[in-house]
């Protein structure tokens, strides 16, 4: 899995953004914190992504900068996909 399906990724991400209105655009550079992704929501998002995309984020990826924007998170997930994602 070198790239993750945009629709799947965005659908999962949207479930955890409490301040993103239904049907609103989600830009790659949107600030996830502004859209409601606090530390608890990030943990829930992490589990949701792992369960649905078949990847496991290593400890070093569990940093604030990983969860800054949709693009930074997606890039991290795609890099994991290239490495197999599971360790």
Question: How would you describe what is shown here?
Answer:
This protein is mainly alpha-helical and 87 residues long. The chain has three helices and no strands. It has a single domain, classed as Non-ribosomal Peptide Synthetase Peptidyl Carrier Protein, Chain A (Orthogonal Bundle), CATH 1.10.1200.
SS-derived structural category: mainly alpha
* Unreliable segments of 5+ consecutive residues: none
**What is the CATH superfamily?**
ACP-like
Distance between the termini: 15 Å
Q: What is the CATH topology assignment?
A: Non-ribosomal Peptide Synthetase Peptidyl Carrier Protein, Chain A
User: How many helices?
Assistant: 3
* Topology as a string of helices (H) and strands (E): HHH
Question: Mind telling me the CATH class?
Answer: Mainly Alpha
| SS strand fraction | under 5%
Pfam families: PP-binding
Domain Carrier: 3-81
InterPro entries: ACP-like_sf (IPR036736), PP-bd_ACP (IPR009081), Ppantetheine_attach_site (IPR006162)
Protein name: Carrier domain-containing protein
């Amino acid at each position: 899995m070198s790239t993750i399906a945009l629709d799947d990724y965005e659908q999962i991400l949207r479930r955890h953004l409490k301040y993103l209105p239904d049907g609103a655009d989600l830009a790659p550079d949107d600030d996830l914190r502004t859209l409601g992704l606090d530390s608890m929501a990030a943990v829930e998002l992490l589990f949701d992504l792992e369960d649905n995309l078949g990847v496991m984020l290593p400890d070093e990826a569990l940093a604030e900068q990983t969860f800054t924007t949709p693009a930074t998170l997606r890039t991290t997930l795609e890099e994991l996909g290239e490495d197999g994602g599971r360790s």
